[in-house]
Each structure stands twice: as C-alpha cells, then as structure tokens.
TrEMBL record:
The keyword Iron is assigned to this record: yes
Domain PLAT, chain residue ranges per copy: 2-118
Keywords (A to Z) from UniProt: Calcium, Cytoplasm, Dioxygenase, Iron, Lipid metabolism, Metal-binding, Oxidoreductase
InterPro entries named among the record's database cross-references: LipOase (IPR000907), LipOase_C (IPR013819), LipOase_C_sf (IPR036226), LipOase_CS (IPR020834), LipOase_Fe_BS (IPR020833), LipOase_mml (IPR001885), PLAT/LH2_dom (IPR001024), PLAT/LH2_dom_sf (IPR036392)
Annotated metabolic or biological route of this protein: Lipid metabolism
Protein name, UniProt field: Hydroperoxide isomerase ALOXE3-like
Residues at which Fe cation binds: H365, H370, H545
Annotated positions for site Essential for stabilizing binding to COTL1: W103
GO cellular component, one term: cytoplasm
Biological process annotations from GO: lipid oxidation
Provenance organism: Chanos chanos
Length: 553
C-alpha cells in the first residue's frame, strides 16, 4: 500500500471557497489512483489549506498529472471553487507542486501538471504531449479574436464581462472596487450638477469647486502652479504623458518661428544656436489635424493640432517659448509668445494641454498599454500552455487585462461612454485619432531605450520618467534574459519552439495587423530577439502603463 500526502490550498479571493465535494486522481508513469473524495467540501474555505491521504495499492511511479473535480454537496447549489495549488508528497518523500490558480466548475475535470516549466521540444511523455496539444485546442476555442474597430488591434470575442471565461473575470473585491470608483465619481458629478450641466464656466475659480472630494497633494500643487511656465514644461517630461516631447534640431516648415520672436525668451542667445546645442524641444500634435469633433449641449466642440516650442534654460528648466494652435501658418494661425498678454498666453497653453489630453488618453494610454496589452495577453492564452516557461513569465502581468479592457469598451468608448459623451472628440473623433496613431506604433517606439534615443532625450536633465524607466527596463531585461537562457541553450532551440513561434505570429497578425513596417518580428530566430521582445511586452504592460496611467491627477 502506497500513501500520498496531498495538500490542497484554496485561493484567498472572496467567494473562492466551496461547499461541494472535491475529488482527486493522481496520474503517474506506472498507473493512477482511484478517484478519491478528499472530504465534503466544507473544508475548502477561502485562503485555507488542508492535508489529506490518498491510498493506492502500489506506487504510481513519477506523478505527472493530477485530476481535480467537484460535485454538489447534498442539496446545495453549485458554487465555483478557486483552487490555488496542490502539493503532493510521495512515499519516497519527494515533494511535488501543482499550481492551479483557476476556477473549477461542477463536474468539470481539470488536469494539472507539475509546476516545473518545460519547452515543447523537451517534452517526452506521450500523455503529456497529448495533454499539451489538447490544452491549446481548448484555449483557442475559449479565447477567440474579434475585430473591435477596423484597422486597430483585435480584442477578445466577448461583449460583456459575463461572457468571459471565469479566470479572466475580476475577483469580487476587484469588481466592487472598479464599480465603486466609477459610480462614486459619477455620483459626485451628479451631486455637483456637473454631469448633465449645460451652463458654461463663469470663471476659472469656479472649476476649483469640482474637485473638493478626492484631493491629493499632487492635485493641490498642480492647482497652485498650473499657470507657471516652468511647471507647464515640467509636465511634458514628468507628467502623465512624457511621450510627445522631443529634441528639435530643425523647425517644422509649418511652424515659422523667427529669431526675433523668441529673442527675449532666450536671454541673449539665438534660436539656431540653442537648437544646435540641443536646448530646444518640440511637441507636435499634427495627428489631431481636422479631427472630427463632438457636439455637447448643442454646441460644436473644437480640437486644435498645436505645435509648442520649449527651451532648456540655464537653470535646466524646460519652458515654453512659442505656441501655434494650427498646423497651417498664416494670419489666422498666429504664433503665441510669452510676451503676449497674460490671458492670450495662458489660453494658448490651455489649448496645448487639451490636445495633449487627447493624445495621451487615446494614443499613449489606451492604444499602447491597453489595446496592445490585450493582444499580448490573448496570444499568450491561445498559444502557450500553462507549463511553457514564457507563459509562466508573462501570465502574472496579464491579470485583469481583458476584463479591464472590456470595461473600457463598455463604459469609456461606447456610444454612451465617457469619451464620446464628455470630450471634444466624440465617438468619431476618438476612433479617427486611434486610427491615425496606430501606424506610428513601431517596435522601436515601444522599446524605451530606442524611444528615448530617437526623441533625442538621452541627456535632458531632471527627466525622471527616463531615469526610472531605463532602470526598470534594465532590471526586466536581465531577469528575462536569465529565464530564457536557462530554458533555451541555443538560437536553434528558439527556432524549434513551435508554440513560441505561434505566439509571436499571433501577436504580429492580430496585434499589429501584419504590418511589417512596424518592425514587429513575425518569428524569433535567436534568444536575443526573443529576450528583447519579451522585455518590451512586460515593460509596456507594467512600468509604462503605470507611467501614463497613475500620473493622472
């Protein structure tokens, strides 16, 4: 008689436990155990673990799989159970770990492999090879692509969160947090009569009354300094959108700034000299030119496509020195300067910030860190089995990605969502802005070191986004490099991994729409290429998203 000690741990999320009866089957290279009921499911409360004994007539050899399933207890209704992990100690005292981390439904047999990662070309057991193939077939049926908006990255084929597989849905507490934040914000606006208000602002001080509910230190600082030129410039380096500004060595033909215009701002220097020395910077919002606009309260809204010129002062501050609100120079498109009236200069800066809001939210936040993140996530779920080392590398960074994006599409992007209802672009302008931005999303622009280099910002002082971002990039790169070189001893092994090759091709096809000009690889021919791409994926789903999301006041 052989005895196996089995410890099952239930996940810690709310409602993760079950009252159902739970059964286990151990599968080894020399046989399998009987289907064994561990206990009536009252043992399986949330965030708990308990040890059981599974008896077999003889040893099972090496344990390669365990099967988990559950049935209702007495008359109680079915309740899904979140199994976190299973530990098995063999009669030979070998300790094996089987990570699960998924919801298990009634009478649904789930097979779990040992936690050790394994590439497909190292797979030897016929049962495990078949299981690997069957898992991917099941995953591709569960996670299907659909076109959400033409000429943009594909998304999951689901219109409602209830249609998502349970493992992609918010946990109860995360769902409540998301809904609470959304409805509290909307309720606050309703209480202040702002959500449906049709009255114009009487003056700037009236706007202060909007934000009495959720003030932060950052908000207070911005409220006190937002009119100041140094703080205005600072935000383009270290604010919520540090992605537009670039070093300017030559003025665009559409922006005829003269030496005389900026002489007083340059403190005795010349514009040509300052450009040559790398002290002139530019934000150009040409993608917003002639964008379709919204109608709010029966009033047409306005979106400008400004160009803003900045100067790095002797004190290493970035300050605006010229603003043009249109892409076409001329009498109807004056260049605003700090020497203009205080009101004119302030209004010009406000228009620049309004344009930056659109570019930030749609291009650098939504498109690059949400829509593309969903493509990375779905490709992972569809092409990599849970035992694959790249699956294990990526999956912690994909949690809630799909559900969050579904909420974006429902509450932010839909016809009645926040963006079409409350912003100047409306629905048509939003879609057009995304489509214009999409061709600019290149592999180089997604890799922070190349992005910073291409924008000429390697030596700009006080650029904390760059400094912190590059440090995080290097950390991620070293980590990914170590993992990949442990599992892939040569470039030939990377080329041999069909699952990995299918993964990158799925991303190229559905994330980047087969656009070879983007520079996104269609296949990996070396460990180096795979390491760099995986670093980019993780960076954009984590650090980059935090940079363009968490900086919002």
């Amino acid at each position: 008689m052989a005895e196996y000690k089995v410890t099952i741990t239930t996940g810690e999320m709310m409602w993760g436990g079950t009252f159902d009866n739970v059964f286990i089957t151990l599968v080894g290279t020399e046989g399998e155990s009987e289907r064994t009921m561990l206990n009536e499911g009252r043992d399986f409360a949330g965030n708990s673990g308990k040890e059981y004994i599974v008896k077999c007539e003889s040893a099972l050899g090496k344990i390669i799989l365990i099967g988990i399933e559950k049935e209702p207890y007495l008359f109680l209704p079915d309740d899904d159970w979140f199994c976190a992990k299973v530990k098995v100690i063999t009669p030979e005292k070998e300790e094996l770990h089987f990570p699960c981390y998924r919801w298990i439904k009634e009478r649904h047999l789930v097979f779990i492999r040992e936690g050790k990662a394994l590439t497909p070309f190292k797979e030897e057991d016929d049962k495990l090879i078949l299981m690997r193939q069957a898992e991917l077939e099941t995953q591709k049926k569960a996670y299907q692509w659909k076109e959400f908006i033409e000429k943009l990255p594909y998304c999951i084929a689901a219109d409602d969160a209830k249609e998502l597989p349970p493992d992609l849905q918010f946990t109860f507490d995360r769902s409540m947090e998301f809904l609470l934040n959304f409805y509290v914000t909307m309720a606050e606006l309703k209480c202040k009569f702002l959500a449906d208000s049709k009255k114009p602002w009487a003056n700037l001080s009236d706007i202060s009354g909007v934000f009495w509910f959720n003030k932060t230190e950052t908000f207070t600082y911005v409220q006190e300094h937002w009119k100041e030129d140094p703080f205005f410039g600072y935000q383009f380096l270290n604010g919520a959108n540090p992605m537009v500004i670039q070093c300017c060595k030559k003025l665009p033909e559409t922006f005829p700034v003269t030496e005389d215009m900026v002489q007083s701002s340059l403190k005795g220097s010349a514009l040509a000299l300052e450009m040559m020395n790398g002290n002139i910077f530019l934000c150009d919002y040409k993608l917003l030119l002639d964008l379709p606009t919204n109608v709010i309260n029966m009033r047409p809204q306005h979106v400008v496509a400004p160009i803003c010129l900045f100067h790095r002062t002797a004190e290493d501050k970035i300050v605006p020195i010229a603003i043009q609100l249109r892409q076409e120079p001329g009498e109807l498109s004056p260049i605003f300067l700090p020497s203009d009236s205080e009101e004119d200069w302030l209004l010009a800066k406000v228009y620049v910030r309004a344009a930056d809001f659109i570019e930030h939210q749609l291009h650098y936040h939504l498109l690059r860190t949400h829509l593309l993140a969903e493509a990375y996530c779905l490709a992972t779920l569809r092409n990599l089995p849970t035992v694959h080392p790249v699956y294990k590398l990526l999956i912690p960074h994909t949690r809630f990605t799909v559900h969050i994006n579904l909420q974006w599409r429902e509450k932010i992007m839909s016809k009645d969502g926040f963006f079409p209802k409350y912003t100047a672009t409306g629905s048509d302008g939003m879609v057009e802005a995304l489509k214009r931005a999409y061709p600019t999303v290149t592999y180089r622009s997604l890799c922070l070191p190349e992005n910073i280099e291409d924008r000429g910002l390697k030596d700009v002082p006080n650029f904390y986004y760059r400094d912190d971002g590059l440090a995080l990039w290097d950390i991620l790169f070293k980590y990914v490099d170590g993992v990949m070189r442990f599992f892939y001893k040569s470039d030939a092994e990377v080329a041999l991994d069909k699952e990995l090759q299918d993964w990158i091709l799925d991303i190229f096809t559905h994330g980047f729409l087969k656009n070879a000009e983007s520079g996104i690889p269609q296949a990996f021919q070396s460990v180096d290429k795979a390491v760099k791409f995986l670093t980019m994926v993780i960076f954009n789903m984590t650090a980059q998203h935090s940079a363009v999301n968490s900086g919002q006041v």
